[in-house]
Amino acid sequence: MALDAPVERRDEVQIAMGNGNGVAPSQPSRPAGRPTAAAAAAPYADRRLRLNPNADHKPEDYSDVRGEYAPAVYSALERHLPPSLIDADRDVKLHFMRDILARYWPQGERNKVQRHREYRQRILHLYKPLHEELYNMHPSVFFLPTFLEAVRSNTEECFRSIMTEPIPGVYSFAMLQPTFCEMLLEEVENFEKWVHAMKFKIMRPNTMNKYGAVLDDFGLEAMLNQFMEQFIAPISKVLYPEVGGGTLDSHHAFIVEYGKDRDVELGFHVDDSEVTLNVCLGKQFFGGELYFRGIRCENHVNSETQHEEMYDYTHIPGWAVLHHGRHRHGARATSSGLRINLLLWCRSSVFREMKKYQKDFPSWCGECQREKRERQSQCVKATKMVSPNTHTQANRLCLCCHFLDTLYFL
């Protein structure tokens, strides 16, 4: 159910780079006898990252680093370095972190990323925007006053005051100004016409959507980075701390189109994100409800849906729905009209690395929690059924259940 075909994986890796451009510069020459960063980092190769970040540590400045990942990725990851490495030279730490991040990016993907970068640079050189004001952040023009006030207050109480939570982990709220929605719709339409006139190939958002466009491809990346960092990350830090909501550092932003001569519906799936923002831009349409069927980890993505996990959300132009990327969902058929939505997949490289060290049931997976409750219930039943003389054995059974819970995801 995960979206992992070649086109989308290319988008995924490209976005993971954040604002990175070009090739990483070679290391400066070193005085004779001084070890290279690779040699200095070698003794730390078997060290694991800290599960919780070192909040008191001030990361190095990586703004001069170009290439695979954005500087913010290295700064966020540095807080998780093992104590023996956190005060090492910057080059040593950088080499260690690059080794970790390289595991997610094989050479074949690097080649695809380079081709996509060249494709994007050509568009940025030739395409003339219709609405220049979209390419810089203007909060009062983009967002409704109620949403801005909640973000400025930056408290859980204020966030929840503008939201509804129909099922756990799914939030809906009024977000975008009508003028912003109209401008973005016009900009996308203008870009698609330009692509057609130039006989240029348009990269689609993923392998499931045959229509729509990747917004970063024609210059909106910097604005959308601010969109995520200043307006989504503060909310995610409060509402989704268990899936890296406080360490979002990259995004994949795109437009999807549903209706006649467009995509009609979207199959049941999960997103390649930690947190997903889905905002309806318009236009006039019927149908197209978004249906949710429970949050699942990789091990349980195809498990059955419980009745209490079922929910259908009806889109309203300007309104957003925010949810876990691993929340299983799909889109029902748009029976008439045209529905266009803005999607922002928000990702955390730190959370993805830390998932490897997970030793307990994910607190956010509905099926993991259900299985854990079943084990605990069986343990309680076993304790009640035994005679007083066998309480010691029952207690051992309970300890065994707890031990199995702990080892389940080793």
From TrEMBL:
One of its GO terms (molecular function) is L-ascorbic acid binding. Pfam families: OGFOD2-like. Residues 1-45 are annotated as: Disordered. Its cofactor is L-ascorbate. Residues 29-44 have a biased composition (Low complexity). PANTHER family: 2-OXOGLUTARATE AND IRON-DEPENDENT OXYGENASE DOMAIN-CONTAINING PROTEIN 2 (PTHR24014:SF4). This is Fe2OG dioxygenase domain-containing protein. It comes from Zea mays. The gene is LOC100193023.
